[in-house]
Amino acid sequence: RGTLKYKLSKKIKEHRPRTKRLLQEFGDVQVDSVTVSQVLGGMRGIKSLVTDISYLDPEEGIRYRGYTLQEVIDHLPKPKGAEMPFVEGLFYLLLTGDFPNEEEVMQVVEQFNKRRIVPRYVYDVIDSFPTSSHPMAIFSTAILTLNRESEFNREYHAGLKKKDYWEPTYEDALNLLAKLPEIAAYIYNKLYRKGEKIQSNPNLDMGADFANMMGIDKPYDDVSRLHFIIHSDHESGNVSAHTGHLVASSLSDIYLSISAMINGLAGPLHGLANQEVLRWLQGVMEKMDNKLPTEEEMQQFVWDTLNSGQVIPGFGHAVLRKTDPRYMLQREFSKKHLPDDPIFKYADLLYKVVPPILQEHGKAKNPWPNVDAQSGVIQWHYGVTEYDFYTVLFGIGRAIGICANIIWDRALSYPLERPKSVTTDMLEKMVGIK
Ligand code: AMX
After folding, report:
1. What CATH superfamily is the domain 273-381?
2. How far is the CA of 313 from the centre of ligand 1 (A)?
3. Which of 120, 124, 254, 330 is deepest in the core (most CB within 10 A)?
4. What are the tens digits of pLDDT across the range 297-327?
5. pLDDT confidence of 289, banded at 50, 70, 90?
6. What is the 366 CA–ligand 1 centroid distance (Å)?
7. Residue environment code for 219-236, b if the CB has 16+ CB neighbours within 10 A, otherwise e
8. What are the boundaries of each domain within the chain?
């Protein structure tokens, strides 16, 4: 009673009749139709998934449970003296749709703290990687390795009822999320700090403990909280969210599902873009001898990138048609905390220069910056200059949203995902050219 799990179980009971009614009474009502270009074009825009955890409006950006990111940040409880809220409180909001009060958030913090210890064999697996491995490959493997801990698997094989699938899934999700900061910090220290390990501090919240294990002073705790919160969910059709949902739909456990979603996030058109932004910016800086280029020089660099057939990392979006609010929040944070940072100045110049060029270039449907155009800039400022690591940070945040989604998938008994494919021959016949 009064716990997150109890509240969630009530919310699930209340919600189930809505899904059931839609299926039973309105199962044949058409939601969308599909064109040839959607079939050949990555299923862009087809309305064929459902989630109540977040919704991405093309003009406005993401809302979590109906709230804008600014509202989420304003209304979630914050640790004493912090500018950014408890990440644990966000998990509560994503799962239940309600803002937790102080007491409710502290219960979740306590739950996370209890589940932090990472088994020894996970460290052994991480240590067996060559130091030249990409941290996302190590991160995904470390998560996968934990699969033997799955309570869902144990209970499923013991005959768990379908309506109860969500409960051990919830336990698995908390057990995994609580360990991610330590796993990530361990990977960071192994790859870039000769294995120096800073112990987790059970008296800290998730964001503060991550900053502690990274060995970075304030306000990196707030940077971490902000980062994990804004990266957590972006409705269900993006590659990482969809992968997590798809894999979980075969009743693979949380560890298998989140490891898979991390692999999707690791691609340069998705999460890896934030590392690409920094790599690309470094190229400009080297060329300019670290001096801030003029607007004309920057324009030239952008055109050179486009003319060589590359995309401008951190700009464009598959759904958004305006500047990403996640970008804006990080820009506001940067303006407050690192206004004189040279890389921030570069990023700011790009914000001015790139959109008109992409418009003139005429290909990208959205010329505005996305979340990845800013996040690496902040990390760099606080000393996390190894940009290969940035997508791991994205992954910690994204895991929170995907876990919440998978718990609800199980609660509402969403079935195995199985769309239908056709052959090119069939498409040609359908359009009448064969
Ligand atoms: N620079 C140059 N060209 C771009 C571009 C950019 N930033 N964004 C889109 N385009 C091009 C596409 O490559 C595509 O060209 P093509 O027809 O020759 O293949 C054309 O414009 C139309 O693309 P679109 O419909 O506007 O975008 P999309 O839905 O196919 O792809 C995205 C979306 C994000 C992959 C794309 O904008 C991109 O590659 N951006 C740069 C990488 C990036 O920032 N990714 C991070 C996205 C956010 C995230 O997931 N973290």
Report:
1. Cytochrome P450-Terp, domain 2 (1.10.230.10)
2. 8
3. 254
4. 999 999 999 999 999 999 999 999 999 999 9
5. confident
6. 8
7. bbbbbbbbbbbbbbbbbb
8. 273-381
Of 138, 148, 252, which Cα lies nearest the Cα of 186?
Answer: 138
From ligand 1's centre to the CA of 201, what distance in Å? Answer: 41
The set of catalytic residues is: 270, 317, 372
Atom of ligand 1 nearest to the CA of 271: 51
Q: Given the cut 0.90, state whether the ipTM is greater than it.
A: yes
259 CA to centre of own chain: 13
Residue whose CA is closest, atom 18 of ligand 1? 363
The arithmetic mean of pLDDT across residues 45-58, rounded, is 96
Instruction: Please state the atom number of ligand 1 nearest to the C-alpha of residue 365.
Output: 26
Q: Which parts of 31-150 fold into alpha helices (H)?
A: 36-40, 69-75, 87-96, 102-114, 120-127, 135-145
Query: Is the separation of the CB atoms in 376 and 277 below 8 Å?
Result: yes
Which residues surround ligand 1 with Cβ inside 6 Å? Answer: 269-271, 273, 306, 311-318, 363-366, 370-372
